[in-house]
Amino acid sequence: MVVAAIISAVLAIAFAGLLGSNRTWRTGRDKLLCRQEARKIVDNIGRTLRGSSPGWSLGGSSYGITVSDSGKRLDFYVPQLEGGEISALTKVTYKLDPDDQHRLLRKRGLETPEVVSDSIGSINFGGGCGGCSAYTCDSVAQNCPSVKVDITVADGGQFSISSQVAVRNYEQSLSADVVVEAPEAGDF
Predict the structure, then answer these.
(1) Which is it for strands 85-97 and 179-181: parallel, antiparallel or unpaired?
(2) Residue 113 and residue 103 in contact, taking contact as beta carbons nearer than 8 Å
(3) pLDDT tens for each residue of 11-52
(4) Spatial contact of 114 and 103, defined as CB atoms under 8 Å apart
(5) Angle CA(12)–CA(14)–CA(20) in degrees, nearest 5?
């Protein structure tokens, strides 16, 4: 009977240790998934934004990079190539879903908006001000062609990441026959 009690106590201690290690493993896995989600979002935004320009100009209109809604919305134009030449500019918008503030949406041109992530804790975009003195401007200055992206993901933990994305096409000009593909004002 004493032997059975000792064996039961040893098994209870071992089982408690296994439960604790399982909980620790799940917590670590959730933190890893949260960090991967944040990095995936920043990579998605950065990959698309790099092809933009702070000041495309076409027919007297400017098609630059703008930040609005207190840093919660980012609008910019990316080139579409045909035969090595820019044939169109497509407007790209990243913003929080007004119906669910944890959902980040992306809309390219006239396409249907798509969900980038359902795990946003907070997001803030900031345009590079003149001379890169700050990243709080509503539009990106020609002499600081970059955008700061701050994201906090809250999915199985919380992780914040910040990145500055430099655009590549800030000195490229457009021909007069380039088409602009953008939704109607107020559509998205």
Answers:
(1) parallel
(2) no
(3) 777 777 666 666 776 777 777 788 888 899 999 999 999 999
(4) no
(5) 100
